[in-house]
Amino acid sequence: MAKYDKADIERRMSGAIESLKGDLGGLRTGRANVTLLDPVVVEVYGAMMPLNQVATVNAPEPRMLAVQVWDKTNVSAVEKGITKANLGLNPMTDGQTVRLPMPDLTEERRKELAKLAGTYAEKAKIAIRNVRRDGMEMLKDDEKAKDISEDERKKLEDEVQKLTDKYVADADCATEAKEKEILTQ
């Protein structure tokens, strides 16, 4: 039975792009974005929990995030978690709400963020190329098992390469847009 599955290859490559978009969404561009706090974990009830499981995050203004903590006993833990995440934000507490004004980005920080976006893109491209390699190996295995002919293998390898090129271009496009957004804010 043939091992090669185009839908699986496409799904895995698409997953790499979705992961990249998530990573890029977490990069701060000077504008308040709720995904900025996704990596924050908070120590509450004797366990480490993601911030979104103890509070609601929203952006009431373009340069301000507000974290509405559900249980007032967790407010200081949320503040500590945000500070420990090293996002360059200074939490200000107002009752059960922790306000996070977005500081202006320095030119140096913008360049660091743009470089980080490039690192995320490279990680996604490596994942896409690994999926390509798996697909090519499956095709060779299918040919060895006499499930497909050599001509068919070559045709399907072209198909895998076209998918790879498409998803690598998608990664480049998403990264370019994010770098432009970071550098021109």
The gross shape turns out to be elongated
Structural class: alpha+beta
Low-pLDDT segments: none
What percentage of the residues does DSSP assign to strands (E)?
15-25%
Task: Write out the strand line-up for the largest beta sheet, numbering strands in chain order.
Answer: 3-4-6-5
Mean pLDDT: 86
Radius of gyration: 22 Å
Largest sheet: 4 strands, antiparallel
Helix and strand element order: HEEEEHEEHH
General description of the model:
With 185 residues, the protein is α+β, with helices and mostly antiparallel strands. Helix content is 55%, strand content 16%. The chain contains four helices and six strands; from the N terminus they run H-E-E-E-E-H-E-E-H-H. The strands form two sheets. The protein has a four-stranded antiparallel beta sheet with strand order 3-4-6-5, covered by helices on one side. A two-stranded antiparallel sheet has the order 1-2. A hairpin with a 2-residue loop joins strand 5 and strand 6. It starts with 5 loop residues before the first helix and ends with a helix.
Brief rundown of the structure:
With 185 residues, the chain is α+β, with helices and mostly antiparallel strands.
Furnish the topology, listing elements before pairings.
Elements: H1 6-25, E1 41-44, E2 47-50, E3 55-61, E4 64-69, H2 75-84, E5 92-94, E6 97-101, H3 107-144, H4 150-183
Antiparallel strand pairs: 1-2, 3-4, 4-6, 5-6
Helix pairs in contact: 1-3, 1-4, 3-4
Question: What features would you highlight for this structure?
Answer:
185 residues; 4-stranded antiparallel sheet; two-stranded antiparallel sheet; 55% helix; elongated
